[in-house]
Design a protein that fits this description.
- The protein is an all-alpha fold.
- It has one domain (about 25-455): Amino acid/polyamine transporter I.
- It is built from 17 helices and no strands.
- The protein has helices at about 15-25, 30, 35-40, 45-70, 80-85, 90-125, 135-150, 150-175, 185-190, 200-210, 230-260, 265, 275-285, 285-320, 340-355, 360-385, 405-445.
- Helix 8 packs parallel to helix 11.
- It is globular.
- One of its GO terms (biological process) is transmembrane transport.
- It comes from Stagnihabitans tardus.
- It is found in: Membrane.
- Its main location: membrane.
């Protein structure tokens, strides 16, 4: 509630460019770090195959999200979709998937930012090992403050730094591939013998785990549904333009890094490359490229962490507003019109993982939560079309070839679950057990506080068959 008893909500101030900046901004850091663990799992070619298969998976995600979210235009994204189409228990779980996926990704970004600052300090002649933890804390606190102050400034900031980070990848590609001069690529030498596919096709399967990191988070565009001026136009345009941008960036990133860096170093998560594009720039010997890619890496991590705070807080806020969590979290700031309590509450959780967990583990937890959310989406889409056929409600966007994208998405999710199980079976089981326990808590305790009659808020006709 605002002054004098008036009710306040989130502001509708965003356009298609902000949606693009939110989706690409969260994900582009995946080109700057994390994807290279796929090389360690299966070699260079395995990482490329995983990149394109994951690209198909996320194209299906973007198509499905564009249709459903442009129709269910409310904060919470996939959580709100599940609430209207599947039911409360599924919605509660999807809300948790979103919060954990984005919070873990935020922690991974902060870790990378701290690493990058320590590397820059070493290049400038700093002696000794720089303590990265203060920079990790400061980056998260600054971005949380920015989100607290307003969504328009937050995503305008994301738009600028994401565009710079994407341009840096293009410039590095043009400078090293031979387009603007002599080529520096050493693919033939680096791919000799078994180097390109050292573990055979089982390595391709294992690489699918980290192949998702190229695109993880593009579905976050749905969290802006309640804050865009025209959901039917801005959400499909921003989301589909975003996935096209990421497909280009991911392929160029693979080409640059595998052509300059040996796969053994590129894929080593312990003693190898943490920021592969930055390392590739260092290998060129060009100081301007090193500076540009250092700035690009830092901007990509900040843009991603910034978008993650935005998306995680909207999902948590939506759960609180609907009483799936304590209603205290559903508050909107009377001046800044942001879900300020949710923003502040999630900060210490992100800090705990950023300061106390290894990068690959944090990435794995984020991927697993995201993957569980993607597995729900085909079911959601099929039920949506079945309950409300094409001529029954107005849609902002109608994705083609239904139900083929849903079937492809479900198949690729199953393959990726198996790939994750090969390398991180314990974490997979632990995560599933956690969500089962959370579901039991919601069913037997929390659901009694939910205002059931207020759950269905869309002005749609009765579902077909009900």
């Amino acid at each position: 509630m605002g002054p004098h008893g008036t009710q306040v909500g989130l502001l509708r101030v965003l356009g298609p460019a902000h949606v693009w900046a939110l989706g690409v901004g969260i994900v582009l850091v995946g080109e700057y770090m994390g994807w290279n663990f796929a090389v360690g799992k299966g070699g260079a070619y395995a990482a490329l195959i995983a990149c394109w298969l994951a690209g198909i998976l996320y194209t299906c995600v973007a198509m499905i999200d564009s249709e459903v979210t442009s129709t269910v235009a409310a904060a919470g994204g996939q959580y709100t979709q599940a609430k209207h189409i599947v039911g409360p228990l599924m919605a509660f779980n999807v809300g948790l998937y979103l919060v954990f996926a984005y919070t873990m990704l935020e922690a991974a970004n902060a870790i990378t930012a701290g690493y990058l600052i320590s590397q820059v300090a070493a290049l400038t002649g700093y002696e000794g090992e720089l303590n990265q933890k203060p920079f990790i804390v400061l980056s998260i606190l600054f971005l949380a403050w920015l989100n607290y102050r307003g969504v328009l400034a937050t995503l305008t900031f994301n738009l600028v730094i994401t565009a710079i980070a994407f341009t840096a990848i293009i410039i590095l590609f043009l400078s090293t591939s031979g387009v603007l001069g002599g080529s520096m690529m050493q693919h033939k030498a680096l791919f000799e013998g078994a180097a390109a596919l050292p573990y055979g096709w089982i390595g391709v399967l294992a690489a699918m785990h980290f192949g998702l990191w190229y695109y993880l988070g593009i579905e976050g565009t749905t969290q802006a549904a309640e804050e865009v001026r025209s959901p039917a136009r801005a959400l499909p345009f921003g989301t589909l333009a975003g996935i096209m941008t990421l497909l280009i960036a991911a392929t160029l990133t693979w080409y640059i890094c595998t052509g300059l860096i040996p796969w053994e170093f590129l894929g080593d998560g312990t003693n190898g490359s943490v920021a592969p594009l930055f390392d590739a720039a260092r290998l060129t010997g060009s100081q301007p490229l090193v500076v540009l890619l250092g700035v690009g890496t830092l901007f990509a991590t900040l843009a991603s962490a910034n978008g993650c705070i935005n998306d995680a807080s909207r999902a948590w806020f939506s759960l609180g507003r609907d009483k799936y969590l304590p209603g205290w979290f559903g508050a909107v700031h009377p001046k800044y019109r942001t879900p300020y309590r949710s923003i502040v509450f999630l900060v210490p959780i992100a800090l705990a993982f950023a300061l106390g967990a290894p990068l690959d583990q944090v990435i794995t937890f984020s991927i697993l939560s995201g993957l569980l959310g993607y597995t729900f989406m085909p079911i959601n889409m099929i039920l949506f079309r079945r309950k409300w056929p094409m001529d029954s409600i107005k849609r902002g966007y109608e994705h083609p070839f239904h139900p083929l994208p849903s079937i492809v998405l479900l198949t690729l999710c199953a393959v990726t679950f198996f790939a994750v199980f090969l390398g991180y079976g314990t974490q997979l089981v632990a995560m599933i057990v956690f969500y089962i326990v959370a579901s039991l808590w919601f069913h037997f305790w929390r659901y009694r506080f939910v205002a059931r009659a207020a759950q269905f808020t869309m002005p749609w006709p009765r579902p077909k068959g009900y």
